Amino acid sequence: MYFEIDPQVAEDKGLSLLRQETHRFAEEVMRPAAAALDKMPDPAEVIAEDSPYWDVLRQMKKLGYQKIFIDPEYGGLGISGTEAHIILEELGWGSVGLATAIGVDQVPPGVASIFGMGDVIEKVVQPFVEDTEAKYHSCWGMTEPECGSDYVFLCEESFRPHIRELHPGQVKAVKDGDGWIINGPKSSWISSAPAATHVGLHVTLPPHDCLSNGAFCIVPLDQEGVTKGKPIDKLGLRDSPQGDLVFDNVRIPDDYMIIRPPFYEYRVGQIICVTSCFMGAVFTGLARAAFEEALKYSKDRVQGGKPLCEHQSVKQKLYKMFEMIESSRYYTRKVMEHVWSKIYIEKTFDASSRHALSAQILGTNTAFEVAHEALQLHGGYGLTKDFLVEKLFRDARASLIMDGANDILSLAAAYNIVEEYQA
Amino acid sequence: MAIFPSKEWIEEVLKVAERSEEYKEASKDWEGDFLCIIGCDEEFLGDLSRKEVMEGFMSFLDMMPEDGRKKYRGTPMGDFLEKRLGVSLDASLKGLDLNEVLAKISNLSAEDLSGAALYFWADFWHGGIRNMMGVAPGEHEDAAFKLSGKYGSWKLLVSGQQDTMRLVMSNRLQLEGDMQYMMKRMKAVVALAKEVLAGVPID
Q1: Residues in B touching A157 (Cβ below 8 Å)
Q2: Looking at this predicted complex, what is its ipTM?
Q3: How much is the mean pLDDT over chain B?
């Protein structure tokens, strides 16, 4: 178990217990399931009825992990940002793929619990909150074939003058009587889409001229006109089924349109703040997992007549990994606490997106660099399927692209910094 | 317990805002008035059948100068008052026989209120409320923000049962004005709902 630098966390018995219990779940339930899912040659097996994916999801829901991001007023756990970070780091340590599954699961009910009213509370939020059998499972539909990470720019007010230079969006909703009709494609990178019953969907509204003239809605995926693509075959995150969604005249009721103009362009960035913090926390967990694999291996593996860890160059590498992980934990936790406070406690929705984006970038870069070094310390064995570090490295590589490519996240944050930072 | 909308409710809101340090701090840089439009519907009609609500409603109308009240004439609310309830917009409402007015309510339906609305104006300025009053149609149209919605949605807001953003996001209340300004000052909006409006329980 890692060293805890924050005395308020270290000395809090409740937080220690939370960390231990989540870690036990990550170790005993998530790790073996993730290993099995990762080895499945056909990605369709991952979401088959008897797949361990569903076993893990059921157990997560029994433990209440599907309620982390739900407003306490509607059954959320009512935990602090610190507690959320502790849970997510441990889940990420177990498997970032499965942590992603329970993360995206909460986007539609979570957003609806904060901003929604009426039928959507009764028909979406409550069933998700009460579900312990994984009867319901959600995904988050943002990225599109022709505008991959573009939505990230909606985070930044400073980018607003340039927003019309981006693609205007492919998934479109139009008002039709007391509901909405949706058409268009979301791309193959929608985590959990092939397994999901609902999607939290970003759409554009008439005149469909700009991403910021959009809305966030919830679409039940058993609706006529929805096509779910097959899970894609990919390098990393094989335990997170991803696929496309296509909407052909799909109808939703008005209450399912949760965030609409003129609020969409202000609120979508706050959703991204939460998901970016999620990424920062779970990938700090992956970085720690890779470091621990490297540390254990370096104590067992003998080279030049002594364990690897007795070599000074290895010691230095281990130290560097430790420093990176501690920095990542400290920073991503602080940002999570800030975002949590602005969204779930004060409800002022003015979380700093530049910090949230940088938490994701730091967490994922740390995960990749630490996993890379950890694999290097394993030598040739690190390339084999016999060692966990091989999977961790592949998963860490995916993190530099998923949930907004880091190049784009940093560019979006840079617009804000250049505009706002007074040197 | 105050009736919404009524003279008593407005006076209580002003008092609570005046003594709330939390509200003063959260809204210290707020500059912007609101024109609030309450769409009167079936729920309003139902509530009006209670004598205390009718009394509150009349006190709200009576806060307006006579000239202002007359501007309701020719509007659906004016027709409702004069033609359905027999309330003259020309005379003071103080001596009104409420029992007589209440007797007429039971024969009315939502159709008799179709399109009817009440207006009040609130001037929020640097941690305080400089003014809050019932106004006539067409007055304060240049307010920085315009918030409108059905009576039932307004009750959810002023009772503190639902937060402003949730009501606006779900289109139950419609907000017009400089959104960027408001989004940057959500602390003031949250504090108004939590510290001020929720501090005046409504009946």
Answers
A1: 180
A2: 0.81
A3: 93
> Does any CB of chain B come closer than 8 Å to the CB of residue A114?
yes
Put simply, the answer to whether B166 touches A349 (Cβ < 8 Å) is no
pLDDT at residue B90, as a whole number: 86
Boundaries of every domain in chain B: 7-199
Sign of CA dihedral B141, B146, B149, B153: negative
Domains and CATH numbers, chain A: 7-130 (1.10.540.10), 138-259 (2.40.110.10), 265-420 (1.20.140.10)
User: Which value, to the nearest 10 degrees, does the dihedral of the CA atoms of residues A383, A386, A392, A398 take?
Assistant: 60
Residue A190: closest CA among A222, A237, A258, A136: A237
Q: For residue B105, which of B159, B45, B59, B28 has the smallest C-alpha distance?
A: B45
User: If you compute the radius of gyration of chain A from its CA atoms, what whole number of angstroms results?
Assistant: 21
H or E element in which residue A362 lies: helix A353-377
Nearest chain A Cα to B153, which residue? Answer: A117
Tokens of B180: 């960027």
**pLDDT tens digits for range B48-105:** 999 999 999 999 999 888 888 899 999 999 999 999 999 988 888 877 889 999 999 9
Yes or no, beta carbons of B190 and A266 under 8 Å apart: no
For B61, the token pair is 């109308």
- Cβ–Cβ contact B171 with A under 8 A: yes
Q: What are phi and psi of A237, to 5 degrees?
A: 50, 45
The answer to whether residue A260 neighbours chain B at the CB level (below 8 Å) is yes
Please determine, looking at this structure, whether the domain spanning B7-199 carries the CATH number 3.40.50.300.
no
The number of angstroms, rounded, from the C-alpha of A315 to the middle of its chain's C-alpha atoms is 32
- Tell me which chain A residues have a C-beta less than 8 angstroms from the C-beta of B166: 114-117
In this complex, the residue of A115, A157, A347 whose CB is nearest that of residue B169 is A115
Rounded to the nearest angstrom, the minimum Cα separation between A56 and chain B is 33
Q: How many interchain CB pairs under 8 A, A with B?
A: 51
**Euclidean distance between CA atoms B34 and A203, whole angstroms:** 31
Is the Cβ of A341 closer than 8 Å to some Cβ of chain B?
no
Cross-chain CB nearest to A348 (options B162, B167, B186): B186
Mapping DSSP to helix (H, G, I), strand (E, B) and coil, where does residue B91 land? Answer: coil
Give pLDDT tens digits for A140-171. Answer: 999 999 998 999 999 888 898 899 999 999 99
Stated pTM of the model: 0.92
Contact present, A298 and A308 (Cβ < 8 Å): yes
